[in-house]
Amino acid sequence: MEKKNGAKELILNGILFENPVFVLVLGTCPTLAVSTTLLGAISMGLAAMVVLICSNAVISLLRKVIPDTVRIPCYIVVIAGFVTLVQMIMHAYLPDLYELLGIYLALITVNCIILGRAEMFANKNSVGKSALDGLGMGLGFTVALTAMATVREVLGNASFFGIAIPFLEPFKIAFLTQPPGGFFVFGVMIALTSFITKGKYPKKKSFSCEGCPSAGVCGSKECAGCSSAPEAQEKGGEA
Amino acid sequence: MELFRSLVIILMGSVLVNNYVLSRFLGICPFLGVSKKLDQATGMGVSVIFVMIMATLATWPIQTFILDPLGLGYLQTIVFILVIAALVQFIEIVLKKFMPALHKSLGVYLPLITTNCAVLGVTINNINDGYNFLESIVAALGCGLGFLLAMVLFAGVRSRLDESDVPQHFKGLPITLISASIVALAFMGFGGIVENLFPAV
């Protein structure tokens, strides 16, 4: 029973309280790029989830073998290996999706979510827990992408999963499907998340330098280049 | 002349029209994270240009002379990311040893560039677009310059943002993204500029 609770918590954590996109603000590049269509968003989310689960499990399995000093390159090799597998499988069986996602599929390798979870979670926890964390985070990523894509496709292109919605046609906001619209929707979504979840969970803790995917290689005291840390601390401090 | 013209088209196209940050969404993390101060933004931008060119110099021959003849194209992602990671480490060591002044100003940004998707993106795109060696280098330079331009412009926008009164939940990242959206909108104005400046003969 206790174990089940643990599993449930881990998955919920990934989807809601530590949503990698809206709360931890990791993996922004694919979020903005592939969220113009629902199909692209969901397939990207699932592809990243598969890589995340596998790499989390393998890294956790090897956490006592990998020397601490070279762990980041090791993680990158493991992740790149799984990304290549996913690429090959999609190229063989789902060529249309492979074309649709294009270069962003290869770029899952440098997606901060995956390296970030390896660094934050998988190298400290057991294999089972790490795989579940990967599942939770992957679902969170998919949910976030789907939410963004729903807004952008329905309001921007007047369609849902490629099926046209005729009565919305005269009102569609083409701006949303273009690059600036991606930034705009993402900004509004984060503000909305901050509004809904305010004060319900400890924010600051997860945003120390440790939470930054680059922390291992970074070494800078002020975290000058961390993608998430300075921003998030500022946000947490003001809430 | 024809060669020069095609190179200028690639350069202008990658700096203005297909700006990596603002229209292709690559390298968003450093764009949002390091653009708070102008000097940091410039330092990061210059480092990225440098690494992009070096990475292209290394990966293009690897793809053309090693991976393609041996039919190992599927290893592209793994090989490229390893080359970039090793290259960044190598550049850091060399700079530290021979150019301490430069290392001092760029050193902080170098490790972060390994996980910068724009660098991996440039190297893969150069292969996908079928550019030759010279074109690849020009494209890398253009993408780097575009990144620098976006960083510097955005640092200016953010310094103005500091003094403005923002709704509570939009403070921090959300308002930054909304301003990025407006900057990206401005860049969309460059669409078509290349075709019209250099009409097809």
Please identify the oligomeric state. heterodimer
Secondary structure class of chain A reads mainly alpha
Distance between the termini of chain B: 13 Å
The total of beta strands of chain B comes to 0
Terminal Cα separation of chain A, in Å?
36 Å
How many separate domains make up the residues of chain A?
2
Order of helices and strands of chain A: HHHHHHHHEEHHH
Record the strand order, biggest sheet of chain A: 1-2
Count of alpha and pi helical runs of chain A: 11
- What gyration radius of chain A follows from the Cα positions, in whole Å? 18 Å
Fraction of residues in H or I helices of chain B = over 70%
Strand content of chain B: under 5%
Shape of chain A: globular
Element order of chain B: H for helix, E for strand:
HHHHHHHHHH
In round numbers, the mean pLDDT of chain B is 84
Structural class of chain B: mainly alpha
- How many runs of DSSP E, i.e. beta strands of chain A? 2
Please state the overall shape of chain B, judged from the principal axes of the Cα atoms: globular
Radius of gyration of chain B in whole Å, from Cα? 18 Å
Describe what this molecule looks like in 3D.
The complex is a heterodimer of chains A (239) and B (201). Chain A has helices at 2-17, 28-34, 38-61, 71-93, 95-101, 103-106, 112-122, 127-157, 179-197, 215-218, 229-238; strands at residues 159-160, 163-164. With 239 residues, chain A is mainly alpha-helical. Chain A has two domains: 2-201, no CATH class; 204-239, no CATH class. Chain A has a two-stranded antiparallel sheet. In chain A, a hairpin with a 2-residue loop joins strand 1 (159-160) and strand 2 (163-164). Chain A starts with a helix and ends with a helix. Mean pLDDT of chain A is 76; it is low at 201-239. Chain B has a domain at 26-154. Helices cover 75% and strands 0% of the residues of chain B. Chain B has ten helices and no strands. The mean pLDDT of chain B is 84. At the A-B interface, helix 2, helix 4, helix 9 and helix 11 of A face helix 2, helix 4, helix 7 and helix 9 of B.
